[in-house]
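Reply to dn_fold:

You asked what the input looked like. This is it:
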Amino acid sequence: MAKKSTNVEPKSKDTHKTDMRDVLELRRTAKETKRYKVLMRILALIILILIILIAIGYAISYFYNKFGSFTVKIDKYDMVQQGLTLSETPDYTIATAVLNAGIVYNMTNISGEDIPDNVDQINGTHNGENYIAYTFYLINSGDSTISYSGEMNIENVTKNVDEAIRIAVYKNGKKTVYGKTKSSGGGKESDCDSTFLSSTIVMRELREKFEPKAKDKYTVVIWLEGNDPDCLDNIVGGTLKLGMNFHITETT
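and this is what came back:
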């Protein structure tokens, strides 16, 4: 029996080229799809990172205003090289360059006469219901006699709350109350011992002949003075951030 012949015509060159183009097109499409997926993942990651950064920025801003109402700092070089250090107690074990006072939530106005007479006799944070109180020590733990300067600054304020703020600074038991100049004209408020040095500087301190092992005790008390004419409803919800910075001016 004779075999039936089956003739398969070979593909033409044009057909072969078309098949190759189809294969290449499929590969290109697959690569583009893969690239698209990778790009979308990268874009999603970038968006996520941006959201996280915005959230962190918001959190920093929130804590800056709400939790950082009073911060004490010394120059780190002065701490490392000269031994100037901060502590919440007179007997310190760790050299510290930064201290932070606790915050009082929803603080309302009071009279300075409502603050206890012994407010400077407690170490660290000892806030009242409507005032911030913080005691710390500046210590010369080095071997040289030094001179230092200290300056308290208004680092952030909202809703003009500083118009009615009072800041009492006790240095080694001696009390000085600071407030802004009267908004109605010049001069200090009747309950103040001194006015702020400027719109951003509360006070400045200079200490000479600060001998080795010497300690200066500071207590800072902050409140809204209800008897101040500027203590009005328009400052409700205002925030205030204060910072006190120390640095060595001379070494002998």
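Residues 13-66 form the longest helix (54 residues).
Hope that clears it up.
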